[in-house]
Write a structure and sequence with these properties.
The complex is a heterodimer of chains A (340) and B (531). Chain A is α/β, with parallel strands linked by helices and 340 residues long. Chain A has helices at 53-60, 145-161, 175-183, 194-205, 260-266, 280-290, 302-311, 326-336, and strands at residues 5-6, 11-13, 18-20, 28-30, 45-49, 65-68, 74-76, 79-85, 93-99, 102-106, 128-133, 165-169, 190-192, 214-215, 229-232, 248-253, 270-272, 294-300, 315-318. Chain A contains eight helices and 19 strands. Chain B is an alpha+beta fold and 531 residues long. In chain B, the strands form five sheets. In chain B, strands 4, 5, 6, 7, 8, 9 and 10 form a seven-stranded mixed beta sheet that branches. In chain B, strands 15, 16, 17, 18, 19, 20 and 23 form a seven-stranded antiparallel beta sheet that branches. In chain B, strands 2-14-12-3-11 form a five-stranded mixed beta sheet, with no helix packed on it.
Chain lengths: 340, 531
Amino acid sequence: MPLIEFTEAGLYCRAGGFYIDPWKPVDRAVITHAHSDHARYGSRWYLCHHLTLPLLRLRLGDIVAESIGWNEPLKIGDVTIRLHPAGHIIGSSQIRIEHKDEVWVFSGDYKTEDDGISGAFEPVKCHTFITESTFGLPLYRWQPQAALYQSIVDWTVATVADGLTPVITGYSLGKAQRILDCLSKTGLPVFVHGAIWNIQQALLSAGLPQPEVKRVQPDLPASTYKGAVIVAPPGADGSTWMRRFSPYRTANCSGWMQVRGNVRRRNADAGFALSDHADWQGLLSAVKATGAEQVYVTHGFQSAFSRYLTELGIAAAEVKTAYGTEEEEEAAATSEGDAA
Amino acid sequence: MKAFAQLITVLGTSTKTNDKLDTLVRYFATAPDRDKVWVIALFSGRRPKRLVNAALLKKWCMEETELPEWLFEEAYHTAGDLAETIALLLPPPVVALEEMRTLASLMDEIIAQDQQPEENKRAFVTKHWKEMTQGERFVFNKLLTGNFRIGVSQKTIVNALAKATGVTANLIAHRITGNWDPVTIPFEELMSETATAADNSKPYPFCLSYAVDDVHALGNANDWQAEWKWDGIRGQVIRREGELFVWSRGEELVTEKFPEYTNLLQALPDGIVLDGEIIPSVEGKPLPFALLQTRIGRKNVTKKHLQEVPVTFFAYDILEYEGKDIRDWPLLQRRELLESITQQANHPLLLLSPVVGFSSWDELTTLRESSRDNGAEGLMLKNKNSIYHAGRKTGDWWKWKVDPLTIDGVLIYAQKGHGRRSNLYTDYTFAVRDGDQLVSFAKAYSGLTDKEFAQVDAFIKRNSIEKFGPVRTVKPELVFEIAFEGIAASNRHKSGVALRFPRMHRWRTDKKPEEINTLDDLKKMLEAYGK
């Protein structure tokens, strides 16, 4: 019996009697991170990292949940689980499951570069590694964060100098915090969309200091935003919510911006390939560092990445999951919630 | 070169025409003259001979990156652009070269490689790859493959040049048409008002039209001249100093593709430029465009072609007479002259595109219904007092096409798109029903909104049956109404027909795949419109 089975409801650990990031309601759910495609509503009990807990409550409301720290063993059923930093967003964790002498690790979403906010990704030795593959093609090779931050700062300053308001979009949980971190270097006043404001409040009340920002409010006059930078979720772009910043220029921060066609499709004036996922080299180095004999590849370019691993002599197979829809959901949610 | 790569990046992503214009003006104000000439050349489709083909570039990139071919292909179909795929796959530059190279000097280098053996070309290309940033590599690869199409219209280029040089836009539009060589021509000469008319072949910028829906809004019907809108190749026939030239609207000198036109040399007076349609016809009746296509694709036109597809010229305007530019004459006056010229020429290859007489918009609406019977795709409406404009101007010329033919088909194959549709399944193949079989009959890439494309893309990702390289077979479930302009017999397609300009007219979410049209329906359309 494999330690983790791929079922209709999600990744299931029979020996421990729990699911990891299930996409259907279950009794016990272990959660890697608080993005909506991994943390879904309706399960009776949740377990996650301490830093994920306030975000989980923000998104799922009143739930029964417990939290642990990184590298703290916890016995559930017949297995011992440990969380290890995944470097994806605040609180994001890989799940290590140990049963007798066998170790499996589910990566959740991860990136290998330390962004200074999310905790540094930690390679974990295991027999079987289940990895994501969002950017599992060699097209995706990220620039170092310092260089990307500099480009974003340069673009922002130049846009203000041209007399336009820079509007920078990125997922409200994860990307937005990095954008704010980056913008703090400019010294410009920063206004955020309500969705990002809410995340900030949750992080502040969890005791995590955040850069100072103001919230975009419906009743503020348009002149308030002159000379300021706006940070918003991707779904806000193209909505009526944006009109108050006119004249403005938009930039989108996402790994997809690596390819010009995607920048054009988004209709953004600029695109920065700032990603919270590992690039091709990152995925390869993470897989190799685990020393795993068997690799399962989930959401992303799973067929290409698993085939390449196989050609390298690492046994790999692709697995269908319901992950990888965060972007669509966020776009839909924010375009409706105009007043937020 | 750095400045040019930056220009391309801004033009490629900027969403506002004014931003593009400003960027171009700034570029033209600061770039070296020879670089400017090259930019004009590249954006107006004048490119040097292709140095290497796509297959070689791909091979060298695979050797440099040690990636297997299947993975290169995956990457290519996801990025949707070969030059960009290579730029992204290669490792970051080894030496951050202080970029002193100009665009023109790089073009000189590329042209100088032309006669070199393959291994020298390889060394040249890979050396540059290693010294360039990703953005520069992308541009370099585009220059090598000679395939340059970057989101900016010729009109924007012309306006930017006008702003930067102070020369009028109309004059620039005329100056940059025709035959000139970016390697030898100095920038001042290209822009010069008084440049010698050394180039006898120089055409005028074509006057273009917009589509009209409600003709009543055009006012008094008596102010308008109607003509059939032909489905051929728009062209200018030029006779100057005893030579004859033929230009297509794509600004290509196509004289050699239509050898029969040399007969017009004797029939036409010198110093004349005619605007009209290159179109095959028998006894004044146009033949389907598909026939012309079988000819223009060929390097050499054979005797058989000349007999089977006799090409004529349907003239509808005259732009130059006795060596003088008469584009500012009112249309009626030009028309009168054109009629007398064609009459005097009295040549079977030179036909006068007739005026369609009408006295009210309602009458014309009825006449328009007979367009297909006349071998036309609709009507052209031209203001009787209008001058011959350079390019597309609202107000004086309108096209009023007939509704397209349509047929319902089901989506059966899909492939990822290019450019702004990279990594999205947007290129589809459709089938009609033949008994219990599905027979593919058309490919279409356009006609849906971005939102619809996203929905179809999501369906395809969830419902693909098999993968053949980049092509996915899709569960036959989504029905689309396919619109097209013409139909012709073809032995290249399984269905036996080839459609002209097929596109998705509507997504028929109300229809089931059982309700689509049949192969018989298609054959009936071929019978009715394809002969």
